[in-house]
Specification:
Leucine Aminopeptidase, subunit E, domain 1; Aminopeptidase; six-stranded mixed β-sheet; 16 helices; 20 strands; binds ligand BES; binds manganese (II) ion; binds zinc ion
Length: 500
């Protein structure tokens, strides 16, 4: 979709549809909505007076303009109540309007910049959210022949009356477009079947994009991984015919790579559970078990495309977790890159193993902070609910607070959980430094405590368990069913102003 900015009155724009908005319960519209209402001789006011449009968030209504303005239709979209209005509501409303436009087979879609007027957002923020909501809301993944034309509008015109806002709107629109494109790419990676999205394929795609945005990508193969001493990643990948990859992205603005933020993501391209094989139901969505890797890689590429102050490193261990005659077994003892040994009690607790090696690898960058992202536990879904929030663990309050702020700003919800020492007791092993599962109870806390044993010492560290968020059970607002791209916008927001 092409995105353009037009300075002028929205009721004068030539397009197949124009979008205007309404806060919930407002009966006399203002701004652009009022201007369109006047041009339509009070048609919007009459709809409101009749009580046929309330302005609930994401509510839409199509009005035909009968030649009164150049555009044949107006799409009226609700922004919800004024009291709870924010950028998240803009994304939701923009998505609803764009989806309605797609149903109408609109080619040229013109819209106001939602929230810049009465909503009180800055023009930049409002434009970014309008573009994000539109591009994210129109995303689809399918391989259905008959749906090949479900592309949505070919152009989005952002229409603003006040010419002094043009530069801010252009900047916001550009940020929104870059972010949404990387989020949608991450959604594709997650949605792609596991037999296609192998570790090698993920590495290839990431290398290609790294080249495009001008950053360094380094891909370690199975021999290099083993030679480095990554005993955990080597063991997990051993049951599969597909070789593992260790993907490294380095965004070093002006060649500077000192004290980077290091992002680490779980890249299990398929999690069968290994010899502790999952059930039919449990295995069904496990192509998405590389969503953490996808998120950190996408965020780093986006950070580079946006030319954030940086530096940022992304580390993504990628492999399959499969059962076979070569597979690692319960009772095995592995040695991770930092020398610590791990007793395997369950081969389905594989994510923490590959992350152990990657977290240990992070130490060589002398990082200012390390943040890992992983679809780590079913327990996170039990605790917080499917599609509700991801779990945050951190040993550093300032880092945790910065991530919570980023979550609030982006609508990618996070909830902080405790890192009590009790959880470490549960993963003590008689034969190794730690074991890879503490059992059912407290499974969320013990998984985080396990990771902490491998994070570089003395470096602020945070862990995001995104198992509840990587694939949506059903579509909502600008988040489609399936791969969500969760984490990309959150991490980029954090990287704009990293703390500590
Ligand atoms: N990838 C799963 C966690 C998961 C479950 C993600 C459901 C998304 C949806 C992870 O590798 C796993 O299998 N975890 C086990 C750990 C247990 C064996 C200690 C779990 O949560 O059951
Ligand atoms: Mn597993
Ligand atoms: Zn897994």
């Amino acid at each position: 979709m092409r995105i353009e900015i037009r300075i002028g009155a929205i009721q004068e724009v030539e397009a197949d549809a124009v979008v205007v908005n309404l806060l919930e319960g407002v009966t006399t519209p203002g701004g652009a909505t009022a201007a369109v209402d006047r041009a339509l001789e009070g048609r919007i006011s009459r709809v409101l007076a009749a009580g046929d449009f309330r302005g609930r968030l994401g509510e839409t209504m199509v009005l035909y303009t009968d030649g009164r303005i150049p555009a044949p239709r107006v799409i009226l979209v609700g922004l919800g109540p004024e009291a709870s209005f924010n950028a998240e509501k803009v994304r939701h409303a923009a998505a609803a309007a764009a989806q309605r436009a797609r149903e109408l087979k609109v080619r040229q879609l013109a819209t106001v910049v939602h929230g810049a007027g009465r909503g009180g957002l800055s023009p930049e923020e409002a434009a970014q959210a309008t573009v994000e909501g539109t591009l994210l809301g129109l995303y689809t993944y399918h391989r259905k022949k008959e749906n090949a034309d479900r592309q949505g509008p070919e152009a989005l015109l952002l229409v603003e009356f006040d010419a002094t806002k043009e530069a801010a709107i252009a900047a916001g629109a550009r940020r929104g477009e870059i972010l949404a494109r990387f989020v949608n790419r991450v959604r594709d990676w997650v949605n792609e079947p596991a037999s296609d999205m192998t570790p090698r394929r993920l590495a290839e795609e990431v290398s290609g994009l790294a080249h495009e945005v001008g950053i360094r990508a380094q891909i370690l193969d199975e021999r290099q991984i083993a030679a480095l001493g990554m005993g955990a990643l080597t063991a997990v990948s051993r049951g599969s015919e597909e070789p593992p990859r260790f993907i490294i992205l380095e965004y070093a603005p002006e060649g500077r790579l000192e004290r980077p933020v290091v992002l680490v993501g779980k890249g299990i391209t398929f999690d069968s559970g290994g010899l502790n094989l999952k059930s039919e139901e449990g295995m069904l969505t496990m192509k998405g078990d590389m969503a953490g890797a996808a998120a950190v890689l996408g965020a780093t590429l986006a950070a580079a495309a946006l030319q954030l102050p940086g530096p940022v490193v992304a580390l993504a261990p990628a492999c399959e977790n499969m059962p076979s005659g070569k597979a690692y077994k319960p009772g095995d003892i592995l040695r991770a890159l930092n020398g610590k040994t791990i007793e395997i009690v369950n081969t389905d607790a594989e994510g923490r193993l590959i992350l152990a090696d990657a977290l240990a690898y992070a130490a060589r960058y002398n990082p200012r902070a390390v943040i890992d992202v992983a679809t780590l536990t079913g327990a996170a879904i039990i605790a917080l609910g499917q599609d509700v929030a991801a779990a945050l663990f951190s040993d550093h309050d300032e880092l945790a607070a910065a991530l919570l702020r980023a979550a609030e700003a982006t609508g990618e919800r996070l909830w902080r959980m405790p890192l009590w020492e009790d959880y470490l007791e549960r993963i003590r092993s008689d034969v190794a430094d730690v074991k890879n599962s503490g059992g059912r109870y407290g499974g969320l806390g013990t998984s985080a405590m396990f990771l902490k044993q491998f994070a570089p010492e003395g470096v602020p560290w945070a862990h995001l368990d995104i198992a509840p968020m990587d694939m949506a059970e059903k579509a909502r607002g600008y988040v489609p069913k399936g791969g969500t791209g969760y984490g990309v916008r959150l991490l980029v927001r954090y990287l704009e102003d990293p703390k500590p």
